[in-house]
Amino acid sequence: MDSLSIPKKTGNTIVYADKKDINADIQEIREKGESIRSGNTFKVSSGRVYEIHGNSVHPVSGPKTINITSIEYKILALTKKEGGLPNAYRSLDIQYSKGIINKEQYDRTKMLIDMIRDKK
C-alpha cells in the first residue's frame, strides 16, 4: 500500500492487494465488457468491487479489502507525516487502552501499519 486516499463520502475502505493486481482491476473497468457494471459500481474478476466518483475509482469490497472506522483512518493517516510510524503505533495503543477501539480494530489497524512500515 503506497498511500491512503479514501474519500469520506464512500466510506473508509482500504484495498491492500498488490499494486499490479489493483492495476489489473482498473484495466478491467476501463475496458468495456471486462467488468460487471451496476450503476457506478464495477465488479472485476478478482472479486473486488469498485465505485466511481467523478474521475476517481475507489474500493468498496471484496478480497483484500478492509472497511475501517474514522479513528482507524486517522491513525493510518499519521504514517504519512514526518516521523509518522512511531506516532501511529503510539496513537493506536492509546486509542485501544482508552477503549475507543476494540481488539478487532486494534489488530486490523496494526496489520495495516505493519504493512506500510514494511513497504518503506
Care to describe what's here?
α2 runs antiparallel to α3 and α3 packs antiparallel against α4. This protein has helices spanning 19-30, 70-77, 84-97, 103-119, and strands at 13-15, 36-38, 41-43, 49-53, 56-61, 65-67. It folds into two domains: 8-66, no CATH class; 68-119, no CATH class. By secondary structure, the chain is an alpha+beta fold. It starts with 12 loop residues before the first strand and ends with a helix.
Could you say which overall geometry the principal axes of the C-alpha atoms support? elongated
- Please bin the fraction of helical residues: 40-55%
Structural class: alpha+beta
- Give, in spatial order, the strands making up the sheet with the most strands: 2-3-4-5
Cα gyration radius (Å):
15 Å
Largest sheet properties: 4 strands, antiparallel
Number of helices: 4
Strand content: 15-25%
Spans with pLDDT under 50 lasting ≥5 residues?
Answer: 1-7
Tally of discrete structural domains: 2
Number of DSSP E strands = 6
H/E element order: EHEEEEEHHH
Mean pLDDT across all residues, rounded? 85
Through-space gap between termini: 10 Å
Describe the structure concisely.
This protein has helices at 19-30, 70-77, 84-97, 103-119; strands at residues 13-15, 36-38, 41-43, 49-53, 56-61, 65-67. The chain has 120 residues and is an alpha+beta fold. A four-stranded antiparallel β-sheet has the order 2-3-4-5, with no helix packed on it. Strands 1-6 form a two-stranded antiparallel sheet.
